[in-house]
Please model this.
Amino acid sequence: MSTDINLLLRTNEESLKRKKRIKILNFAAIASLICIGLVSLIIFILIQTANPTAIKKEQEDVLGKISQFQDRQSKLFILNNRIENINKILKTRKDLSKTMNELLAKMPSNLSINNFEINNASIIIAGQSKSLYTIAEFINNLTDMVYRKEIIKSLTLNSLVLDAGSKTYQVSVKSDL
Model:
């Protein structure tokens, strides 16, 4: 058997140069970090010795400016919160003007309205006409709206009266929204 067997890899000159460069670069990086830290510390100490209250004054100025904006921020927060709550309320409300316009569109032209009351729960309409046909058309239009479930849910005929003196028919209906 041979005793001259070497199991270690031979190192060539290039790999030795690379390792040496890496060591130099690592040392330079660490040295530059330490130098920058020392320079920063020295500058901080010089500023403290030259004007020891400068940093405190600057800190107080910055805190004063921030506190001015906190008042504005709190006012803006309150206003935005109120606007959001108003929008929520408006979304849950029924648009009564739209409801009224849609109902008035269903009114025959020969029917004159004497009373029109609308609230969140119901509508009361009182009108008169010289023709019973016009009143029948009006009631049919409202009945169709109930069947189609458009605006009104139910319809109640409160009164239908003939005024013999003026020869007009008077009608009063109540509808639930």
User: Anything to note?
Assistant: The chain is about 60% helix and 20% strand. The chain has two domains: 13-90, 96-176.
